[in-house]
Specification:
heterodimer; A: four-stranded antiparallel sheet; 10 strands; about 30% strand; globular; B: alpha+beta; 2 domains; 4 strands; about 70% helix; binds adenosine-5'-diphosphate; binds magnesium ion
Amino acid sequence: MIEFKDVSMRYNGKHGKKRALDGVTFTINDGEFVFITGESGAGKTTITKLMIHEETASSGEIIVNGFNLLKMKKREIPYLRRSMGIVFQDYKLIPTLTVFENVAFALRVTGAPVKFIRNRVPYMLDLVGLADKANVYPPELSGGEQQRVALARALVNNPSLLIADEPTGNLDPRLSTEMMYLLDKINEKGTTVVIMTHEKALVNAMQKRVIAIKDGVVISDKSGGYVI
Amino acid sequence: MSKEEKKVTKYSWGRSMLSTKFNKPMAIVSVSVLIICLILLGTFVLVSMNISSYLDRLGEANVVRVYPPYTATQSEVYDLKTTLESFENVASVRYVPKEEGAAEFREAYNEYGEIMDGFEENPLPDKFVLTLTDLTKASETVEKLQQVEGVEQVTWSADATRTIITIKRVLEIAGGAIVAILAVISAFIISNTIRASMQSRRLEIGIMRLVGAKNSFIRKPFIIEGLVIGVIGSAIAYGIEYLIYIYGMQKLIGSIEILKPIPFSEIALPLAGAFILVGVLTGVLGSIISVRKHLKV
Ligand SMILES: Nc1ncnc2c1ncn2[C@@H]1O[C@H](COP(=O)(O)OP(=O)(O)O)[C@@H](O)[C@H]1O
Ligand SMILES: [Mg+2]
């Protein structure tokens, strides 16, 4: 479960302070499939970063998977992150490791046994349709393929929550639809799925709950939603 | 699982656990500095050990003479010998009857030995010649010996002993200072190497964090890198030190007979232990310093 209560975020950037979020409040229950939409610069990536405690909110309260993010100890952060899978807008793959190793990476940091890794990673690569790319390095892959490696890595720990920031950002419409279908399937198996996106057509096609953000403020939150 | 897959997994383990990109030039510099420091250190220690052992063997210093009274009977002398043998801090006891004493005198003083001939009867007393285990406690031991029943007189060369103790202490202090300075230099260089290695892996470290790696997991490869530098450095330094000792010091010192160098076999183990200890400690310490400073969350 994710709870944002009156969350505000101010960046202390080079060009002075920048208010990225203002009084954001919403609750996402276990098992939901939710889009958080908004134009570029609306604050979607900021929300992602707050959810995974990559950034700390300026004020408000954030609870994710039972962790109270503004009050938790630093050494608990790894456990928060292991409780979720994250697909980053810029994938965050390690260019010097193969696809197999990149996916195995997320298991390894948790101290998973080698044997488990050997079985689990090929299964995940198969799931995202990259079984034949196990020994390829990320720079040799297309954007869409890299995105799917990122998805495999996010899901390899079997998290109860999946957060994806612009997971279709680099995909053509057909692959975007395929990606959505994949995420929907993952949601059907019980994983909570939260997707940040600016692609209205995609959101409209899926008919899921939509939280719309504009200039760091929630402007609407409804299920089966359309974005105009 | 096929052979091919197995190869892939094994390979990946090695790559992820150990630093993917050793900063080679930096690592080589680190290892070299460590080697130089260890060799300087080892040579100093070996030289001072030899000096120490030479000083210990310097007859005059480590000798305490215990004289029984002229009137002592055979059995009293025998009893005294037993007492002395089990005395605290006494390493060895040798009984020198006056005849033997005279012979020793003649031998030691060559032509002046004729002085002995001037006496009708041997003027030397019987005596015990003792050596001590711990020279630094010589004066206390001598004092205690003087209290022993059946002991007429105790003589020893207090000045020589004090000089030797001073020399040994200076060597120890200098040795400690050198160890400290060289260890700090090595640790500093190694910590710089590790910092460079961390900088080249910043991206990886950031991603590790984002997928839930604990600090200890992130630190491990860098600590291992420091450890590897330490172990490689001390192994190479040990080999070089061996050659220096065998071909250099032992030949040099060995040519002067009285100096009798300590055989390498006797110091091989302590030297290896010291090298590994210093190497590993500076390696691990160097990386811990760097990791602490630059891997803050
Ligand atoms: N590190 C940062 N420092 C300063 N301003 C930032 C930083 N990150 C994002 N912003 C600003 O915050 C606002 C929201 O950004 P972001 O969350 O990335 O939007 P989105 O992901 O919806 O495109 C933008 O105006 C952006 O310029
Ligand atoms: Mg964004």
